[in-house]
Amino acid sequence: MEDQVNDPIATLLTTYNELNSASIETLYEEPSPLEFMRYVARNTPFVVRGAASGWKACQEWNAEYLKAALKDSEVNVAVTPYGNADAPTPLPDTDLTVFAKPHEELQPFPSFLTYLQQQSSLTVPLPPSHSEIRYAQTQDNNLPHEYALLASSVPPSIPFARIALSRLPDATNLWIGNSHSVTALHKDNYENIYVQVLGQKHFVLLPPVASPGVNERLLKGARYKRSDKGELELVLDEDGGEVPFAMWDPDVPEKHATKYSRLVRPIRVTLDPGDFLYLPAMWYHKVSQTGCADEGICVAINYWYDMEFSGPLYCLDTLVRSVDEKRKAEENKNDGVE
Amino acid sequence: MEDQVNDPIATLLTTYNELNSASIETLYEEPSPLEFMRYVARNTPFVVRGAASGWKACQEWNAEYLKAALKDSEVNVAVTPYGNADAPTPLPDTDLTVFAKPHEELQPFPSFLTYLQQQSSLTVPLPPSHSEIRYAQTQDNNLPHEYALLASSVPPSIPFARIALSRLPDATNLWIGNSHSVTALHKDNYENIYVQVLGQKHFVLLPPVASPGVNERLLKGARYKRSDKGELELVLDEDGGEVPFAMWDPDVPEKHATKYSRLVRPIRVTLDPGDFLYLPAMWYHKVSQTGCADEGICVAINYWYDMEFSGPLYCLDTLVRSVDEKRKAEENKNDGVE
User: Fold this and answer.
1) Record's superkingdom (chains A, B) (predicted)?
2) CA nearest B13 in A: which residue?
3) What does the CA dihedral A321, A323, A329, A331 come to, rounded to 10 degrees?
4) How large is the angle between the packed helices B8-19 and B312-334, nearest 10 degrees?
């Protein structure tokens, strides 16, 4: 108690935990736009089981369908050695942890998918023939462009979100991978509707107030490049730029913890085919996946809607961060690190 | 800039000002429940001009109508010497500023109203016959109870708010006074729809993040009591309890200012008969009033709906307060005041 009187962030996290549910709300039919807006106002996630079951994508897509639809297409594939695209990663032969961006290359879609399928049943250590982790994860509104031939299988927007937020999605993204890829804990300034099509996605969710517990550090950027021998090498970006990134992994909570990590309550939810997840703006999420039983691939679609920057949410995040920054600066000063 | 890097509250207020409008949004017809919910989500006030013009209360109420309807009623009247019910007030013969509660007494409604009317055109100093300020302002769901005979003149709830918030009002309150009463700056944990019926109300509004600028102090409670001679005397409460109350008055901004008051941007709006004001939860408001031209009385109704405590708003307020408390404690310590 004494601790919290003197510690605004501990008080905040305790208050948040008292007033907000520790588990996700489950719906069995889509909310109305008004019901959705209540969740947006509360910045509270929910899952809708089976909401997309009737979509053509959920009814008809499988590996054979996708290969046929995109038989002549080349697609952008993110390639990494460990499924660690956009994740904190040790830079070999240094003490640095860097933000590792994937090697990106165009691959014929059918052979990309066959590779995912063949690899999906393999376990680590992977054989040399399938040692690369590949993931179609361009988050640039790829569905109506790169994957335009598939776009008619899903609605162009989610009606309850489009009506509630009074806007079209800023991006609609298709994700195709297998269980070897994990998306590291991060957050986006978007309201996000995530729709599972094949396989499962396993989300770990943390609210925006968790920022002092996720141990964000400024990481130098690096990108995997394919060497002349075809091997992946992680190369530091030349621009020297740094990105803030969460070092804490809620699945390994002892490592990289801050004094506040123990006050953060992760919410876990698994999406099955046809499920929707409302992932509210600025929520941290770590995402792992399981390929569907028959074919080993995991396919999902998400709709990003611009978030509202007026009102309490963004200001809360701003204040949490500046309070935590000030606290860290003072602790460093007291430690003589200045 | 340097100032703000080290000052999370200054950063917060600057960010808030950059992202939120400095003036109130004006609508000319009622919002839909969904449109209203977008304002609730943004915790942003608006006014709807003329929305209640068709109400029976706005069409038919005047002094004569009210006196006839309540000709046999006694009503609870708040009585003070300066129109300072529930306001910070110097306690005579001491150095104390106290939270002054009004003397409350039952008065026959017609004579209460006649007193308001006769007094309305008088200026300070008031003559002995009209030196008391009287205000019918019981905020205890008085319309369906104390004023049940008037309740059918207004709807039992505001449809867009009832539907959006999925609840009935927690209280519906009638306010009858004249220009000599002012409600001091304060806030309520309610979503509030305020409806003007006769005369004008003049609101000064500050968002919840303004709390470090309003200079809240713990004030001992006191209440006006009518002496044997009929005079009003302010008597300290015996229980010794204290209430936190804003000392800063946005209309006298130099006095009682904190280092953050200058970063607070008050929003001013005047309600005319038939206007709605959405006063979002936790917004500070100071309210003064002008009697209607013919009859000198000011009549309004407000609907209080329970606010949502989950989500970002309440947590933002909690954090702002605890950061400001900690800062003040540290400043006192540095000043050797400890």
Assistant:
1) Eukaryota
2) A315
3) -120
4) 140
What is the set of domains in chain A, with CATH numbers? 8-336 (2.60.120.10)
Q: Which 30-49 residues of chain A touch chain B by CB within 8 A?
A: 33-34, 37-38, 40-44
Residue A125: asked if its preceding bond is cis (omega within 30°), the reply is yes
- Taking only the tens place, the pLDDT of each residue in B48-88 is 999 999 999 999 999 999 999 999 999 999 999 999 999 99
Chain A residues with beta carbon closer than 8 angstroms to that of B263: none
Q: Is A159 on the interface with B (CB under 8 A)?
A: no
Chain B: closest CA distance from residue A130 (Å): 45
Q: How far is CA A64 from CA A61, A70, A109, A300, A330, in A?
A: 8, 10, 12, 17, 59
Segment B86-102 mean pLDDT: 96
pLDDT exceeds cutoff 80 at B182: yes
CA distances from B240 to B84, B87, B98 (A): 21, 17, 11
Tell me the percentage of chain B whose pLDDT exceeds 90.
92
Residue B30 DSSP class: P
Taking phi over 0 as left and psi of -120 to 50 as alpha, with beta for the rest, B94 belongs to beta
Is A17 at the interface with chain B, CB within 8 A?
no
d(CA A97, CA B116): 74
| Residues 6+ away with beta carbon under 8 Å from A311 | B20, B41, B42, B43, B44, B312
Cα angle, residue B40 at apex, residues B36 and B43 outer, rounded to 5°: 135
Question: A with B: how many residue pairs have Cβ under 8 Å apart?
Answer: 111
Residue B318 to residue A42, Cβ atoms within 8 A: no
Q: How far is CA A147 from CA A75, A136, A142, A174, B325, in A?
A: 8, 11, 6, 8, 54
ipTM over 0.85: yes
- The pLDDT of B231-260, averaged and rounded, is 96
Q: What six digits make up the tokens of A49?
A: 């089981």
Rounded to whole angstroms, the Cα distance separating B226 from B321 reads: 38
The whole-number pLDDT of residue B334 equals 83
Q: Which residue of B has its CA nearest to A311?
A: B42
Q: Are the beta carbons of B312 and A316 separated by less than 8 Å? A: yes
